[in-house]
Each structure stands twice: as structure tokens, then as C-alpha cells.
Input
Amino acid sequence: NAGVTQTPKFQVLKTGQSMTLQCAQDMNHEYMSWYRQDPGMGLRLIHYSVGAGITDQGEVPNGYNVSRSTTEDFPLRLLSAAPSQTSVYFCASSSSGRVNNEQFFGPGTRLTVL
Amino acid sequence: GEDVEQSLFLSVREGDSSVINCTYTDSSSTYLYWYKQEPGAGLQLLTYIFSNMDMKQDQRLTVLLNKKDKHLSLRIADTQTGDSAIYFCAEIYGGATNKLIFGTGTLLAVQP
Output
């Protein structure tokens, strides 16, 4: 199993540009989430999904869209990038079948918006 | 929203014990977690404790939970340089199975 994969690893955008951060998992996990990590603020939940076709907002959803058309993929879209979205983005997945609800994290995408 | 707080930095000498502390706010959390993040990598689950437990030991790791004070700690015995990383505590928010609230993270620096 590759686990949770994210692309790209690094990205630089100009203000106003759009892009999609890709996330995929091959563990047949129902739950997938997107977090952003900023210095001194830990990880904050952006959006999450409990299964294909179902998504919901987390703590900081503004400026981001998601969709979940398949169990494996959970892309995060920035429609009009802003400097405040400069951050490291992590995708995670988990299964309701695990007793401790462990989340598995991807390696992250480091995004800079100029 | 919910806040999970940690001290930002801890420095210890190799071979000493490290204790990383965390306070959380959601008393209904069923599980509390410690995740480890090494430089340039994602987070990995280090250990967890169920809310009806006071202590859990796993090799060099000891987790203590004080539900009355909503305080969680992670003790690493015989700390090694490979333990240098950022450690995050996390709680499940509102009973949902995949909504985690993370602390701010504690950077553990192990001096040789």
C-alpha cells in the first residue's frame, strides 16, 4: 500500500490564481480530511468527508472547495489564492473499523501565495 | 471553538526523560492522541489513550490522563536524538470519529 499520497509537494502561486491539491489513499478508508498547518497554531481542519459524495466544513473552510466523487480521491481546490493561504496542507484518512480511529497523514504540500 | 494547548518548546539531554504536557477542553472526548511529526514529514500516530483510562504504557512511552483537570501528558523515557520532533496532542471533537482538534505542538530538542 502507498498509504496517503499528496501532489504536488511544493507550489508557488500568485494572488488570484487557482489550483487543486491532490490527495489519494489506497486503504479503502471512508473518512478523509484536509488540514492546514501554520506556525504556532497546530493543525486546523479545513474540510472533511465521511464517504464518497459526502463532504462537510471544518474549522477554516473559507476559500477552499472539496469534492469526493470516489472513495480514493479527495482534492482540495483554491479558487482564488490569497497570501493568507500560504501554509502546509495535509491530507489524512481513517477507517471506522479501527478501534482507535487512527488517522493516516500524507507527506504534505507546502504552498506559498505571493 | 475548542482549544488544545501545549507549551511550544522543550529541550532535554540524551538519556533524560522528557515530559510533554497538554490541556484540552472537550470533556466528552473518547480518545486522546499523541502524534509525532519529524522534519519535512506528515504526522504519525505515536500512541493514544481511551478516556476511561488514567495511564497507558507502551515501551518508552507513558501517557497520563487527568480527566478532572483535562490534562494529558506524554513521558518519553531514555530520550534519544531520534526523538527530536514536534509532538501534537489531539482530541476528538464533538464525538465525531474523524474530526480532530490538535494542539499547537511542542518542539522537542534532544541534545547529545
Summary: The two ends of chain A are 36 Å apart (CA to CA). The mean pLDDT of chain A is 92. Residues 29 and 95 of chain A are 5 Å apart (CA to CA). DSSP finds no helices and eleven strands in chain A.
